Structures are given as structure tokens and as C-alpha cells.
UniProtKB/TrEMBL annotation:
Keyword terms, alphabetized: Carboxypeptidase, Hydrolase, Protease, Signal
Signal sequence, start to end: 1-21
Protein name: D-alanyl-D-alanine carboxypeptidase
Keyword Signal found: yes
Entry superkingdom: Bacteria
Annotated organism of origin: Algoriphagus aquaeductus
Record-linked SUPFAM superfamilies: beta-lactamase/transpeptidase-like
UniProt xrefs under InterPro entries: AmpC-like (IPR050491), Beta-lactam-related (IPR001466), Beta-lactam/transpept-like (IPR012338)
GO molecular-function term, one example from the UniProt record: carboxypeptidase activity
Location of the Beta-lactamase-related domain: 45-330
Lineage: Bacteria, Pseudomonadati, Bacteroidota, Cytophagia, Cytophagales
Pfam families named in the record: Beta-lactamase
Amino acid sequence: MLNRFFFFCLIAVVFTPCAQAQSPKYVHLSQFLDSLAAKDKFMGTVLIAEHGQPVFQKAVGWADLDTQKPLELESKLRIGSVTKMFTSVLVFQAIEQGRLSLDQSLADFYPQIKNSEKISISQLLQHRSGIFNITNRLDYNFYRTNPHTEEQLLAMMLEGGSVFEPGTKADYSNSNYILLTFILEKIYKRPYEDLLRSQILNPLGMKETYVFGPIEVGKGEAKSYLYNGNWQEDLEAHPSIPLGAGALTSNVSDLSKFASGLFEGKLISTGSLAQMMEMKDGFGRGMFMIPFYERKSFGHTGGIDGFRAFLGHFPEENVTLTVLSNGMNYDNNEILIAALSAQFEKEWEFPDLRERAISEELMQKYTGTYTSTQIPLQLTVENKEGKVAIQLTGQPQTVLDATAEHTFELKAVRAVFVFDPDQEQVTLKQGAANILFRKKQ
């Protein structure tokens, strides 16, 4: 689960050897992961499976920096919005049991929500409801660590209102899956985690997946970290907020089991799976289609606290890629491309991870406080041990990578900052956004 309003919410190397000898085609991938860890770009676990059996697996980095406990393949990390795939499966199981229907109205459960009579279960699943995403609130980073009740979460949704007419387009909203969690609990009269365990986890033998609580390193769980010149432990979101939108902890082995079980028909019917995979405006019902050259995978990405996750399954090839991270200071997409290039033997160029030096004269020109007429946030730029560090109002400070003249990136979220020191301004480019900040005099 990501706070989609903005990108911030977002040593020695230790790595565990793989469980078995691996094909030479994965050598460069393994070296790449080692290099990322050595440069403080990535900490996490990676597993590639063919027909449900691991063909590549590796862990790099630390589960707990304080105690120098390394990550292991069995380490459990929070998976964020990959949780939505599980919630969607539970919804389709309820539909197959006659407890719900895709065209059933939200008004049957929450008539107080604006446009509820126009919003269907299908639209909640496919992010077509128009319901305000409560993790887009500017205060998300402040409230995410505290327990919340159903009434409190609903109040946030009601305050946010409707951002578009239901069914007219798609826009990602964690609120949809929070509501689906409550609906499942109402129709079954059982807690979400009980449903998860009895209907998905136990049937597939997934013993390392559950709704998270406070992180316990002694039980094989990993802490999460943000990078600000060095790794700094992030705060922990409370599970009562993301619920079925992002409150699960798991490991790469369990998630690979889940993908195999789902696509082998062990959880829902072929027809229900086809409805999950049906794409409209880029959204399926609890999953996305993620292409790689001519191939297509189906799965989900996730992010919560400093954790990042990816689960993708290629049905035709029966290949599953799972990547979990508890420290990301790089573009996750580049890691996925490296892994899939190795798996499908595509050409891939090892990236240049060397850092560019910044002169003291330039650094003095960059530093300062900037404001924008486009967004009500202030940008502060500082010199942090020879690196450019930026901070937006209400967000943590983060160090940028120098990638070209006057150009710096936060690769983890594909944000680019282009400075114009002569004009005393900086432009933030992220996706379709171009936001100009001018230095305060």
C-alpha cells in the first residue's frame, strides 16, 4: 500500500547463499544484486520459480541492522498491496458461494458513502468507484502508525468524498479494498485473518503469511529502512489501517505458492480467475497485467513503510517472479527487468552504479528553500556529506543520486530533480507531473 499523493512515505554486504546450484544464466543477476547491496541500493529477497519450483533465489542485506542479522530466503517482510490479490480471491470465493455478486451495490453495506448506490463490488475490485483514497491524505505519515476503527476510516472516506463519477474511469484507491475487507467480515461474521487462513493459507500450506503485528526480528521478520545517506529504520504502519488493502506479511516462498495455487485453480474457478485478470483502463480485479517483451504476467506491486514487493506470474510459461525488499534506494523496475532478462535470456546491460561527485561551488548553489505555485509544499535542499538531500513539508529527508549535470534522481520512485542554479529553481519530474520550485529570497 503506497501513499500515492507523493513519493515519500517511501555498511557491509551480507548475503545468504542460494539453496541449490543455479543455472549459469543467473550469474549476472546474482552479481547485480550483490552490487546493489554493496552500494546501499537494495536489501531484499528474490525468487524465480518454474512450474512452482525455485530456479533462482537469493537474499542480500540485513533483516536488522542494529543486531547485524542478515536477511535470509525465509525472512518475512510486509508485502503491502500484494495483499489485494488475497482479498480479491476471498471476494470471488464469496461470489462462488452465493454470498456476494459482482454487480451488488455498495449501498447494501455502506449507504452513507456518496454514490454508494452507483458503486458495485466489481468497481471496488477494479478501482472504478471514485471513492477518495485515504492514504492520499497529507497526514498519512502521521496517522499510519496508530490503530484505527472502522468508524474512523469511514469518516476519512466520507470527508474525502467522491473524486469522480463511479464507472467513468479507474484510479487507484486503497479505500476500495478496506471496504471490501469490512464487507467480507460482515457477510461471513468472521475476522479477515480467519477467512484468509481457512480459505487460502491452510489449503496452500502457506505457514509464513499472516496479518502483521509489531515487527519481531526473533521470529524471522525483517525491519524496513529508508535511505538518507545511510539506512535508517522506518516507522511501522498499524495493520488496522491497510487491512485487506495491504496488511500482510509473507516471504518469497509463500508468495510463490500462492501464485501457483491461484493459477492452477486451487482457490477459485477458471471463470473467476478470468474475471480477476480482465483488464479495464489498466486495472484488473485485484491484479495488474505486467508485460515483458512479448510475454504477459499477472500480479501486483506493493509498498508500505520502507517495504516494497512484487509478485508476477506468467501463465503461459508457468513462471513466477517474487521480489520483496525492506530497503529500496533504486528503481525497483530495473531489478525486475534484470531478473526477467535472466529468466528469459534477454540481452541486458549491467548498469553503471558509480556515484558522481558534486563540487562545493555547485552544492552551495543548489542548497536552500524552494516553494511552488503548483503545490502547497516547501522543498528544502541541503548538503549531506557531499550529496544532495531534499525534504518536502511533512516528509522525511532523502538523499538523491547524481545522474547527470544538474540532474538528480530518487530512483526508488522514478522521481527526477533538475536544477537550474542560474535561475535559482528546480523542477521535479515524476510520471506526468512537472512541478517547478523557485528558491526563496
